[in-house]
Amino acid sequence: MPREGLLYSLARAALFRLDPETAHSVALKSLSALRPAAALLGAATGAGEARRVMGIDFPNPVGLAAGLDKNAEYVDALAALGFGFIEVGTVTPRPQPGNPKPRLFRLPEHEAIINRLGFNNDGVERLLANLERSSYRGVLGINIGKNFDTPMERAADDYVACLDAVHGRATYVTVNISSPNTRNLRDLQSGAQLDELLAALMARRAKLAQRDGRAKPLLLKVAPDLDEAQVEAIAAAAVKHRVDGIIATNTTVGREAIEGHRLAGEAGGLSGRPLLAASNRVLAGLARALAGRVALIGVGGILSGPDARAKIAAGASLVQVYTGFIYRGPGLIGRCREALR
To answer: How does DSSP assign 265-282, residue by residue?
Structure first.
């Protein structure tokens, strides 16, 4: 085992003795405190790694998915690990505590996590203040959502408010309409609701482009629990409204891959290895429907270099990791980068 892999396995053993939310906080604070040492694990961009997608130059195609750093408090430390891009959030217009605890569960035998966090975050003003203090100037995605108590008929107001706030700072903006942990949020993925939301966002972005001197790419993050007709409808809406990209996918509410597990009955989104097949199915379906007209980012179930290659083979131009990073550590970033060179 490489030295960094051994070190992380020891650190993970200690962290996994803590409850998952405490471990999450301790790990990020430790990473920030040890940032100079963490930087030794990162690698400079090598030949064949750079990608130009959505008009953005990515130094390498392996990014951090939203959810790990909801409030953009640890961007500098995370970037030092060698990610080609960082996505922060999900952020909402107003601060909110999220769902009651416990709301985060590990399934180590499946290298998986169930979460029902519910967009817990400090609000968009705090996120932007944290970014103001950051020295990171790489590719930054900001993932936006709605507050839990905003009525669904007013959801577009929250997304537009967040877009207004973050457009000037983000490299790209991701519209999260696929978390299973905000009531009825996934309804925004279909029919007239999706059409109205995208129309409102694209109209606002056109005005923001005049204010900020350029339009920032707008992406949708979709669920893995979509059937073929839903995938084709989302693809059609993305083309109609000239969305720049789709991130496939968020977590799953399906439990087939962990059937019989003592935690299978816990509500929330399942991520990690059990998500890989469902996520890749939706990713490949979008690739067929879009035929290259909209960029795709593959996320969900990546725990190895071959997993990252499978996302590219399914139609993605870039990949993101989260749960695999928790189980496999910073070494996963390098293994994915090497696999995609």
So the answer is: TS-SEEEEGGGHHHHHHH
Q: Are strands 218-222 and 172-176 parallel, antiparallel or unpaired?
A: parallel
Tokens of 291: 């035929």
* Residues that are catalytic: 179
CA–CA dist 332, 325 (Å, integer)? 6
How big is the chain by its Cα radius of gyration, in Å?
18
pLDDT in tens, 282-303: 999 999 999 999 999 999 999 9
**pLDDT per residue over 25-63, tens digit each?**
999 999 888 766 655 555 666 778 999 999 999 999 999
Q: How far is the CA of 50 from the CAs of 53, 61, 83, 321, in angstroms? A: 10, 7, 12, 18
Question: Using the 8-state DSSP alphabet, how is residue 293 labeled?
Answer: S
Contact (CB, 8 A) for 203 and 194:
no
Q: What is the 3-state secondary structure (H, E, C) of the chain?
A: CCHHHHHHHHHHHHHCCCCHHHHHHHHHHHHHHCHHHHHHHCCCCCCCCCEEECCEEECCCEEECCCCCCCCCCHHHHHCCCCCEEEEEEECCCCECCCCCCCEEEEHHHCEEEECCCCCECCHHHHHHHHHHCCCCCEEEEEECCCCCCCHHHHHHHHHHHHHHHCCCCCEEEEECCCCCCCCHHHHHCHHHHHHHHHHHHHHHHHHHHHHCCCCCEEEEECCCCCHHHHHHHHHHHHHCCCCEEEECCCECCCHHHCCCCCCCCCCEEEEHHHHHHHHHHHHHHHHHHCCCCEEEEECCCCCHHHHHHHHHHCCCEEEECHHHHHHCCHHHHHHHHHHC
- Is pTM beyond 0.70 here? yes
Sorted by where each starts, the structural domains of the chain and their CATH numbers stand as 3-340 (3.20.20.70)
Contacts of residue 126, defined as CB under 8 A and 6 or more positions apart, other chains included, come to 71, 95
CA distance 67 to 323: 10
Residue 150 neighbours by CB under 8 Å, 6+ apart: 157, 158
Q: Can you name the residues that pair with 144 across neighbouring β-strands?
A: 91, 175
